[in-house]
Specification:
The protein is α+β, with helices and mostly antiparallel strands. It has a domain of 121 residues: Beta-Lactamase (2-Layer Sandwich), CATH 3.30.450.150. It is 45% helix and 15% strand. The protein starts with a helix and ends with a helix.
Length: 173
């Protein structure tokens, strides 16, 4: 009986150590360090009021085509509000969210969808960074190769917000 118990324990130990080695063999290593800075886009002169209105108008037109009711914020490169449009029937809670999305997109010089994808991909540490918004719907506005601001949309699903913001961002060249 003692011999059978010893053999069972040895077999279990062998299985456990083999499983641990297999996990170590498939565990990903550290991510490679890129040579170039990601999203290294210089900041430019803040977006004009007319350009901000045109971007918000294009986003609102896209939303209207689908019967989406959105809040749309356009900010300058430092995240300061330049123009805001609340569509009829848009939810009140999305006012601050649209502004936060625009601020995050301008501050970090990248679409907020990148943060959403990173969280979905297993990087929850981003949730602790100040100013991060982890849902689609914030897009930097690039004019002449420089960040002149950003547009943020909220009130629909993340994907709906993103589609409307993309329409607004495309007006800025």
């Amino acid at each position: 009986m003692l011999k059978a118990l010893s053999l069972t324990a040895a077999a279990a130990l062998a299985l456990l150590s083999g499983a641990a080695q297999a996990q170590q063999a498939t565990a990903p290593g550290p991510a490679p360090v890129p040579e170039q800075m990601p999203f290294d886009i210089p900041y430019g002169t803040p977006i004009s009021l007319d350009a901000a209105k045109a971007a918000a108008s294009a986003a609102a037109a896209e939303a209207k085509k689908h019967n989406w009711k959105l809040d749309i914020a356009v900010v300058g490169p430092t995240g300061e509000l330049t123009y805001f449009e609340k569509m009829d029937g848009a939810q009140i809670g999305s006012i601050a969210i649209s502004q936060a999305k625009a601020h995050a997109a301008a501050s970090f010089r990248r679409p907020t969808k990148i943060f959403q994808d990173a969280i979905d991909g297993g990087h929850p540490s981003l949730l602790g960074l100040p100013g991060i918004v982890t849902t689609e719907g914030g897009i930097p506005l690039i004019e002449g190769g420089k960040v002149v601001g950003a547009i943020g949309c909220s009130g629909g699903t993340s994907a709906q917000d993103g589609v409307a913001c993309k329409a607004g961002a495309e007006t800025v060249k």
